[in-house]
Write a structure and sequence with these properties.
Elements (H helix, E strand, L loop, with lengths): L1 H15 L9 E8 L6 H4 E4 L2 E4 L3 E16 L12 E12 L3 E6 L9 E6 L4 H6 L8 H17 L1
Parallel strand pairs: 1-4, 3-7
Antiparallel strand pairs: 1-2, 4-5, 4-6, 6-7
Length: 156
């Protein structure tokens, strides 16, 4: 238990801490299915769910296999940035060059709240957060997305 908690804290600090200006970062995001979870809402998730990087850094999505997918949430995505649609790939690296707020969901498990948020640079959270209700996300996924915005604000 102590090792797991320590690793979780180290991961949270490394992901939420801003990267040094001279370092290019590649954050790995796992798509997990926790068979020990008590409900579907706890079973399916991205790990980590909240990522903060600088423009030009990358996010590598792992395990977009079977029913797991990675899809942009158009309402929570920079207007000029190319959207992401990943499925049936063991590993895909996505470089995000434009500062902004990037919302991600799993097309199959998003209904259970499987969403994540990527903050690139120092974006203004307000406009993207205000569009949560405009998305096609389920109520559970919207609630989870709101909690990610709250966590992002608390980490600032």
């Amino acid at each position: 238990m102590r090792i797991t908690l320590t690793l979780a804290v180290l991961l949270a600090v490394s992901v939420l801490a801003p990267a040094r200006a001279d370092t290019v970062v590649d954050v790995v995001v796992e798509q997990t299915t926790d068979v020990m979870a008590l409900s579907a809402h706890e079973m399916f998730r991205f790990e980590p769910q909240l990522v903060r990087i600088k423009p030009g850094d990358s996010v590598t999505f792992r395990n977009s296999m079977a029913d797991h997918t990675v899809h942009s949430i158009p309402e929570i995505w920079p207007e000029d940035a190319e959207e992401v649609h990943i499925s049936h790939q063991p590993e895909v690296q996505v470089t995000l060059d434009q500062a902004g707020v990037y919302g991600i969901t799993c097309a199959r498990h998003g209904q259970y709240g499987m969403v994540m948020l990527i903050l690139v640079g120092e974006p203004d959270l307000e406009p993207a957060e205000a569009r949560i209700d405009e998305t096609r996300l389920t109520p559970d996924a919207k609630k989870e997305m709101q909690s990610l915005f709250d966590a992002a604000r608390a980490a600032d």
